[in-house]
Amino acid sequence: DIVLTQSPDILSLSPGERATLSCRASQSLSVAYLAWYQQKPGQAPRLLIYDASTRATGIPDRFSGSASGTDFTLTIASLEPDDFAVYYCQQYDVFPETFGQGTKVEIK
Amino acid sequence: QLQLQESGPGLVKPSETLSLTCTVSGGSVVTSSSYWGWVRQPPGKGLEWIGSIFSTGSTSSIPSLKSRVTISVDTSKNEFSLKLTSVTAADTAIYYCMRPAGYIANWGQGALVTVSS
User: Does B48 contact A at CB distance below 8 Å?
Assistant: First the structure.
């Protein structure tokens, strides 16, 4: 299985700051089939980014994704109060599909 | 707009079978080239892909659960189902139904299933 390792586990930032979340795959993805999700307490995950860098419908442009080899990055340009949540990456290039362990973005 | 809704018992005894149904509205489970599936999340932990079923009826599930998982579709009711046999406390989780296209754009709200005697 492809293991996705997210870092850091917890990111403490203030509103207006830039957030950079990392997701490293244990092996190369033949295609950049990686997605990012946001999850708030008591809610289902929400798709933010797919194919490593394509924003899902309705997602603000302060969210962006990028890829470099086995390293994938989710950037939130300027944190809004609504952005404090847990973020997961997921690969769908190789069966079985796998998720990272999550990064919690908390208010500093 | 596609909507998914899980339903089923919230409490299952150890060694018994967990059964959940996902009702689909705003779309059809027989849409060609469509997948339907399940993800779970133990309380306070991360997400785990369970498995999926294609519109042709072919299924796949993660190796660690394969021997215990059945995913099926009922086209007459426009729903699909998950059965997980021989459950233990480790199967306690929020179970989400979803429509994957590799990534998952459509999720149900989730159903908490607790395994306890």
Answer: yes
| B37 inside 8 A of chain A by CB | no
- Token reading at B24: 């689909």
Q: pLDDT, tens digit, for every residue of B53-92?
A: 998 889 999 999 999 999 999 999 999 999 999 999 999 9
Asked whether the beta carbons of residue B103 and residue A45 sit closer than 8 angstroms, the reply is no
Checking DSSP bridges between strand B111-115 and strand B11-12, what pairing results, if any? Answer: parallel
Token code pair at residue A78: 């300027």
Q: Which of A:44-73 have CB within 8 Å of B?
A: 44-47, 50-51, 56-57
CA angle B39, B44, B45 (to 5 degrees): 50
Mark yes or no for CB contact A101/B104 under 8 Å. no
Give just the sign of the alpha carbon dihedral B29, B78, B58, B18.
positive
A88 and B105 in contact by Cβ < 8 A? no
CB atoms A35 and B104 under 8 Å: yes
Give the C-alpha separation, A12 to A29, whole Å: 30
Biggest CA–CA distance in chain A, Å, is 38
Q: How confident is the model at residue A30 (pLDDT cuts 50, 70, 90)?
A: confident
Q: What tokens does B13 get?
A: 């005894």
